[in-house]
Amino acid sequence: MTFKKSILLASLISFSGFCTASASFTFSDQVNTQNSDQIVFVDDVNALDGAAGELNSRSGGQLAKLLALNEFDAKAGSTLHLQMVAGVNNLWVVGSADEDGLSAPELQNLGGKIAASVDSLLNDVNVDVFIDNLNTNLPAPSAYLAQGYHMRHYSFDKYKTKKDAGKSDVHFVTGSASDAEAAYQKDLRYIAEGIHFARDFATEPGKSMYPALFADRVRAKLKGLDNVNVRVLDVKDMQKLNMGALLGVGKGSIHDPRLIIVEYMGGKKGDAPIALAGKGITFDTGGISLKQNSGMWAMKSDLSGAAAVAGTMYAIAKRGEKVNVVGLMAMAENMPSRDAIRPGDVLNTMKGTSIEIMSTDAEGRLVLSDAVYYAQEKYQPKMLLNIATLTGSAARALSKEYAALITRDFELSTQMMAVGERSGEHVWPLPLHPNHFKQIESPIADIKNSGAGNPGASIGAAVIGSFVAEDLPWIHLDIAGVDWLDSDIDVSPKGSQGWGVRFMDQLVRENK
Ligand code: BES
Ligand code: ZN
Ligand code: MN
């Protein structure tokens, strides 16, 4: 392992975000007369009211006719683009019918849909969004629309000569405008920004994103925020702590590993924190157990867990949540080289137990084993969550809809499924059985890093679980399937969606 000069230089020039798309949101009960484009909601095509009703009368009933001609149905999420209705240049009609009321994630999805519609037509957007016909119990629905718009309005075009996306100015015409403005400006916008921060990390090529640089960016982003302390453990620090598993994974790379720790102490002094630990493999070649080439490029996003932790810590600290949270990011690059660890090697962990390496490609559980043990010993958290792009098995089982959720106690899993529903990021339980621990018994070490036969998500969890006290509420999230999107969804363009920021943010909100 050698420290390269170029690391310093690169870290100096890469602090800013890489998304050129920018969006700003304003809220008031007045129309912005400068805007020539509009968005209206319709929940019943046969009874147009609110802004849609007004446009319909001003157009002498043309809007109703156009909706019928285009067979527009008012189901939440349907969109129709029209031009020159009652003098409005571009008009988007958005369906908002929803029987049991629009939830926060459903509103975020609508906001994302709106962003996609206007962005596909206009480079610079100046638009009025009329808030009515929304069936919801939420006091400030436009704040969630803005959050969803903001989340979707992202493009990573740092390496393109032609930049994709321009500036959006979105004005919400709404009652209770000051509540909506506060909810967005003091809270929800930071979630969207945290998500973009996470996507930047996961999208950046492996050549330009490595542990030390990740640490520099986290430091820069959190600089000056109240109650935040960032600590970065380097190789020497980790050697003193005997973190042989984390160090072992990074051994084959010219880029040294790091353990990044963000302490956010916004809660009562002495209250046990929540610990969030993310897998941060800046590129996963598989190591000596080399992966095949097809799709290997996507392993630049094998740091998505750590990226989501970074984004969550940013959101929590920016809004000044009254809670104690510690975010840990276990960073290493998994490369084959003459220094790399081999299959059959035995690594010693901070806990004092040893791990036999069956596959150097099962590296995420190794870096997390030392990270979760450190979190538990140093901070005595009341709850410990780890998040990782850990197994192809989880991806195959649950695909894009759910992240895999593993706990020791089904009651906790049920609670986490509910947190997922409320956050818009869904999780589904997979089992953890005593036999999963049996399967990682090793003939020459305390455990091994994978079982025989089909590699499974539960085995990965069992390895990490071996480092977590049995009585500590522990949540394992395997996001290998969900983070990287092959096609757009409402709140994210394809590519990394920054999965986990909304989930962890919600978990923290509910566990103060
Ligand atoms: N980073 C991969 C898992 C992964 C696969 C993430 C596909 C995203 C998409 C992980 O490090 C890995 O290689 N897992 C192996 C473990 C096996 C060798 C025990 C797997 O799941 O095949
Ligand atoms: Zn990996
Ligand atoms: Mn791997």
UniProtKB/TrEMBL annotation:
Domain (Cytosol aminopeptidase) ranges: 359-366
Keyword annotations from UniProtKB, A to Z: Aminopeptidase, Hydrolase, Manganese, Protease, Signal
Signal sequence range: 1-21
E.C. numbers: 3.4.11.1
Keyword Hydrolase among record annotations: yes
GO molecular function, one term: aminopeptidase activity
Regions crossing the membrane: none
Pfam families in the cross-refs: Peptidase_M17 (PF00883), Peptidase_M17_N (PF02789)
InterPro entries: Leucine_aapep/pepB, Macro_dom-like, Peptidase_M17_C, Peptidase_M17_N
Broad enzyme group: hydrolase
Protein family: Belongs to the peptidase M17 family.
Designated name of the protein: Leucyl aminopeptidase
Organism: Glaciecola petra
Organism classification: Bacteria, Pseudomonadati, Pseudomonadota, Gammaproteobacteria, Alteromonadales
